[in-house]
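User: Structure please.
Assistant: Input sequence and predicted structure:
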Amino acid sequence: MKIRVALTVLKGVRVAVAFPPPAWVVPGMGDALLARLQPWFPALPVLLVAPQPYGVRAHAAFQAQALVEGAGLAGLETIEIDLDLSPPEAGEAPPF
């Protein structure tokens, strides 16, 4: 599975923002995806977002909705992560 991810600062907090299909930005499926993403960003909080016609839907292991409200996520530069590959080792450079 490939997913687009951006590294950014939201309200003073550096985070990894993943953009999966909207159906994955819910408890259950979203939690499984967060568990697969976390090894790629071990030092950062990871959240899932799905732009909606009137705002953004967000899911994370913390209060993600409050963090993304009012944030301009549409113009973020993203990278593509292939979750079927192993994340970089501790000494390797990350893919971003």
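The radius of gyration is 13 Å.
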